[in-house]
Each structure stands twice: as structure tokens, then as C-alpha cells.
Specification:
Layout lengths: L10 H7 L27 H8 L4 H9 L12 H15 L1
């Protein structure tokens, strides 16, 4: 018997145990994850190169835009995603 927990688990914890199905097709799952989390001032290009070839890049970026995830997601760094979010807010306003 499964018992639901309340309050619901935080987003990160939930997705760690129940990843969205698109994650199963992500190319990043086949390489060293450290590539996607460069040190401050480090190069993100190796991760972006993998993302450009990934079949689920759009789903990954959509997932990352919903939170404040660290690292390269959907082919964009944190800074690039913040800029995109800001630009999207400006267009809506």
C-alpha cells in the first residue's frame, strides 16, 4: 500500500526519484555529468555541443525554465536562461 505524503515533496526530490520520461532520451545521461556543471568562469561549450545534438533539448530547456537549476540545461547556461526569462517577461508586459 502506498501512502501519499503531505505536503508534496519538493520538485528536485520528486524528479530525482520519478524522472520525466523525456530524461530517458537525453544525451547528457550518456556522458560525465560534470561537463554540464562547469566551475564559475569555466567553459560551457562542451556541454552545449552535446545539447545541440540532443533529441529532447526543447523539453530540457522547458524544464529548466521552470526553476533555478544550476548548470547547462537545454543548451543554455544559467545566465542565458535568466536573460531569456527576463526578455520573455518584457514581451508579455
Amino acid at each position: 500500500m502506498t501512502v501519499a505524503s503531505w505536503p508534496p515533496r519538493p520538485r528536485d526530490d520528486y524528479h530525482r526519484f520519478y524522472p520525466p520520461s523525456w530524461m530517458e532520451f537525453a544525451l547528457c545521461a550518456q556522458v560525465d555529468p560534470e561537463i554540464f556543471f562547469p566551475d564559475k568562469g569555466g567553459r560551457a561549450e562542451p556541454a552545449k555541443r552535446i545539447c545541440r545534438a540532443c533529441p529532447v533539448r526543447a523539453q530540457c530547456l522547458d524544464y529548466a525554465m521552470g526553476g533555478d537549476d544550476f548548470g547547462v540545461w537545454g543548451g543554455m547556461t544559467e545566465r542565458e536562461r535568466r536573460t531569456l526569462k527576463r526578455d520573455m517577461r518584457r514581451k508579455v508586459a
